[in-house]
Specification:
This protein has 249 residues and is of the alpha/beta class. It has eleven helices and seven strands. Strand 4, helix 3 (87-95) and strand 5 form a beta-alpha-beta unit. The two termini are 31 Å apart.
């Protein structure tokens, strides 16, 4: 994990954790550029992504530990907002195990609620390893497919991350998203949480069944017509405004 720490002169800190195949650079272009200059932004490149592309991703727990260590080393124990998208949401849940952090608002986008998905794990393991092999063989075609899903602005970074990613990292990431460790959260913490999903997100139906059972005091939002993390990428200005509103509640 490599942490990017922007606007360090600002006292109000925000943590933003990217999804699989994305990076801190994409978080900057999709979020921080629209959230304004009044916050300190702590934006990690998770292992196997962005500036940490040469590192092997081991587990969400390891990523959370590295993030926590950085926050403590910088004496940042209070966060106005902690945000995690997809894989980043799984890492953020692990970060909540550290009780020395005070977080005002928790916002999750497209996070998996699969806790024992052996069959899904093998399906997605095969799919991502297949996509990786094909991307290595034909980067141009991979770029074209990524562009059709997430647009030209994000396609190059996401394709490069897919190509560089080691098989071990892919397997570990897929495992983490199929066997999520859902921590017990106090009612006070649950009320700080908002879980959001695109209507077409493959995680959406499962999450809507599980959230009321495990986190009944948390809030939920649904993006009509959107797939996995598409709202963030395709409507960044609108998305940033929603985050601002969440921080004001």
């Amino acid at each position: 994990m490599i942490m990017h720490d922007w606007n360090t002169e600002n006292p109000e800190a925000i943590l933003l954790i990217h999804p699989m195949l994305a990076s801190a650079a994409l978080v900057r272009s999709c979020l921080t550029d629209y959230l304004g200059d009044c916050h300190r932004y702590l934006v990690p490149d998770l292992s196997a992504h962005g500036a940490a592309g040469n590192e092997t991703y081991r587990s969400a727990a390891d990523e959370a530990k590295a993030i926590h260590s950085y926050l403590i080393s910088e004496d940042v124990t209070h966060l106005k907002l902690a945000y995690g998208a997809s894989l980043g949401g799984v890492v953020l849940l692990e970060l909540l195990e550290y009780k020395d952090l005070d977080i005002d608002h928790l916002f999750f986008e497209g996070m998996s609620f699969f806790t024992d998905a052996t069959f899904m794990y093998w399906i997605f393991r095969f799919a991502f390893l297949f996509a990786h092999r094909n991307a290595v063989k034909n980067p141009a075609l991979a770029m074209k497919k990524m562009t059709s899903l997430y647009g030209a602005e994000c396609a190059e970074e996401m394709t490069n991350n897919l190509i560089r990613m080691k098989k071990e990292s892919i397997v570990n990431i897929v495992h983490d998203c199929g066997f999520v460790d859902l921590p017990r959260l106090e009612e006070k913490t649950q009320k700080k949480c908002t879980f959001t999903y695109g209507e077409k997100d493959f995680d959406y139906k499962k999450a809507m069944k599980i959230i009321p059972k495990v986190y009944p005091f948390a809030g939920t939002m649904v993006w009509p017509g959107y797939g996995h993390c598409e709202k963030l990428i395709k409507e960044p200005e609108v998305y940033a405004d929603i985050l601002k509103q969440d921080m004001c509640r």
